[in-house]
Amino acid sequence: MSWLVTGGAGYIGAHIVRALADAGLASVVVDDLSSGHAEFVPEGVPFVNGSILDTALVESTLREHGVVGVIHLAGFKYAGVSVQRPLHTYAQNVEGTRSLLEAMQAAAVSNLVFSSSAAVYGTPDVPLVTEDLPKRPASPYGESKLIGEWLIRDQGIATADTQHPLRHTALRYFNVVGSGDPSVYDTSPHNLFPLVFEALIEGRTPRINGDDYNTPDGTNVRDYVHVADIAAAHVAAAKRLLAGEPLEPAYNLGSQNGLSVREIMDAMARVTGIDFTPEIAPRRPGDPDRIVATGELAARDLDWKNRYTVDEMVRTGWEARRNAG
């Protein structure tokens, strides 16, 4: 009796695999290693090197490993790049999710936790993003995640009166940082933490894109949440599904307060011991002043909370990156 983690060789997925094990739940990983790393999969966890677009492969994996539920993270997650590669984004995120749902139906697997994104909201002009806010994604990536939620919702409706009705929830979050295991770190070429880490390692000065936003210190305010907390929320959702307990269709995993880019930079210098003054570059087009989500529903149902300070987020991420050499 296992959980399939699609994208389980990635930064977030590998943490979820470890959190499942800590909760006494077995897992199996499917990942095509387009952005994941086989060495991130813990020893003893079955690993299938393949794509969720291969419906037959996913179905055989579900059957072979006695899978009772899926935590679905596999996809193309780079919002900025998705503007240049919309067809690839839709193939991976929309067709990939449709393929997975087809395989789940064929194998009579009826529990699904979907890794969605707060990108479904676009750039909302409100202090705190709530789940019922209108969805106005601003990139093909955000659109693909919203369509994924629709696909899952519609499959749930279609199977409601069958022997194996699909039970599901979606978790929406922004910027995942830090590390819960010294052997797993964020390797994205687009995320703030790895960009700063690489600059410091290479002796370059990190950069802030714009310091004239309508925020207390002039830099963007964003939701930064620790990867271990994100992993714990996925496992809590999986356990509720297994127990037949009710879940909302979607939850925001938000920090409630947010952190500015300058606050992140200050913590980087403080924690790493590398003194630097970040360069100020021009704004990036379309970057809003502030995007922060509430996590009240998730706190109620998924024991969601922010257990790490900004310094701990930086310290755990920095240690894991330095361990990689």
From TrEMBL:
- Name the UniProt key words of this record, in alphabetical order: Carbohydrate metabolism, Isomerase, NAD
Xref: Pfam families: Epimerase (PF01370)
Gene3D superfamilies in alphabetical order: NAD(P)-binding Rossmann-like Domain (3.40.50.720), UDP-galactose 4-epimerase, domain 1 (3.90.25.10)
The residues covered by the NAD-dependent epimerase/dehydratase domain are: 3-254
Q: Which reaction does it catalyse?
A: UDP-alpha-D-glucose = UDP-alpha-D-galactose
Q: Which GO terms describe its molecular function?
A: UDP-glucose 4-epimerase activity
Q: Which cofactor(s) does the record list?
A: NAD(+)
Per the UniProt entry, the Enzyme Commission number(s) are 5.1.3.2
Pathway(s) served: Carbohydrate metabolism; galactose metabolism
Name the protein family.
Belongs to the NAD(P)-dependent epimerase/dehydratase family.
Name the chain's protein: UDP-glucose 4-epimerase
